[in-house]
Amino acid sequence: MHAASVPNDTAFHPSTFILLGIPGMQDQHVWIAIPFCSMYILALVGNGTILYIIMTDRALHEPMYLFLCLLSITDLILCSTTSPKMLTIFWLRSHIISFHGCLTQMFFVHAIFATESAVLLAMAFDRYVAICRPLHYTSILNATVIGKIGLACVSRGLLFVFPFVILIERLPFCGHHVIPHTYCEHMGIAKLACASIKPNTVYGLTVALSVTGMDVVLIATSYGLILRDVLRLPSKVAQFRAFSTCGAHICVILVFYIPAFFSFFTHRFGHRVPPQVHIVLANLYLLLPPVLNPLVYGINTKQIRIRIFGLFMERK
Q1: Residue 20: band (very low, low, confident or very high) from pLDDT cuts 50, 70, 90
Q2: Based on CB atoms within 10 Å of each CB, which residue in 18, 74, 270, 316 is the most buried?
């Protein structure tokens, strides 16, 4: 009777979870880890280089580069939140993660993703002001405004994701502790519960559509307005440069959002999607953007490209 009224800690919350990795592909884990590890190293080197160049060169302390600096920081945290544990699962077969360690990883995965989404929106706004309102650029995006935007990006991510932790803490797991994934995410943990997860589903869907979905709409609006003004330029060369820059940015944004939304909606509606496809894409949306962002936003920028070349020549 006592056990029924007050469930013990193991029954309610397991002390540890087991991350399986990619179910059905355990024999290939050693080889699958190689491209993931390569991408992680590229992300660390690329974003670390961008950060070093911007922080050490005062000439680059301008709005566009400060936003790029914030993007690199979020990229480094985003890929480092999951990749080290994933690689230990693949290479060292270290599948165990503590309950609170799992919740911590879940929190940072979703919070940093939401923060990066907000940063991409801020960068789209920066490009809109620079191209469509160039005369007011420095007055609109001064140091105070940039600081407030950065703080808002981080605060929003923390504010909307923290309830995920509360929603998971309230769930009993009845001994279920095996997660068929390489890292801990909200719905992946919630599905193990032996109680209703409707609040988790409703809140997660609300956040995805109202927060991240709104970011996508506003980013699309910004680039739509940019393209409208670009088409009015008299010079074909200027149009081509603007189109190539915006096209590269849009491609990276699509790489960031499409796998993320695919993973999100697969948890709720994609019961026929093979788990291997779901998990690989869920890892790619945390790794591909950190690899591509330094290339598209950084090396594609003339000032940063010149400084990278200068660093290379110095070392040589």
Answers
A1: very high
A2: 74
